[in-house]
Amino acid sequence: MKIRQGFVSNSSSSSFVLYGYCFDNKDYTIEEILKEIGYNYDEETEEWYDMFDELLDSGFYISDNGETGAPRGKIILGKILGEIEDSGYFENIGIIDNLNDIKGEINEKFKLFLEKVNLNDSEPVLIIGNRMS
After folding, report:
1. In this structure, how many other beta carbons lie within 10 angstroms of the beta carbon of residue 78?
2. pTM over 0.90
3. Could you tell me if residue 5 is inside a domain?
4. 9 falls within a domain
5. In a domain, 6, yes or no
6. How many Cβ atoms from other residues are within 10 Å of residue 106's Cβ?
7. Which of 5, 45, 120, 122 registers the highest number of CB atoms within 10 A of its CB?
């Protein structure tokens, strides 16, 4: 029988590149942002998790803690440009020759919230992170 010594983990992670915004989370929660962009949150059923998955499936991402890729005290949101999983599998959206198109997608998706926090005229940035999956 083999015995493993040292750190053993059942969790996996993925690294990602996001084009979007990073801002302080002292005034907003992810739930509030999701409500602002048109999702309804049900506190009893915690249905916002399903909506978060829907957002992710459409290529967008939002995070407010280190386990999901945000720096301490920050919220990140935007469009995922690429992702590498523990298995080495790389997924991306292809060759990007115009970030303005992606900025337009981000601004359309998060328009109401970006206006509320006065980020609608700000330039998105590249955010590189790692998240538990």
Report:
1. 26
2. no
3. no
4. no
5. no
6. 21
7. 120
Structure tokens at 67: 């386990």
Residue 102's domain comprises: 14-132
Residue ranges of alpha helices (H) inside 7-130 are: 30-36, 48-57, 99-109, 111-116
Q: Is residue 89 part of a domain?
A: yes
Give the chain's domain count. Answer: 1
What tens-digit pLDDT sequence spans the chain (133 residues)?
445 454 445 567 888 899 999 988 887 888 788 878 877 766 676 666 677 778 888 888 888 888 888 998 999 999 998 888 777 666 765 677 788 888 999 988 888 888 888 887 889 999 998 887 6
**Count of positions (residues) in the chain:** 133
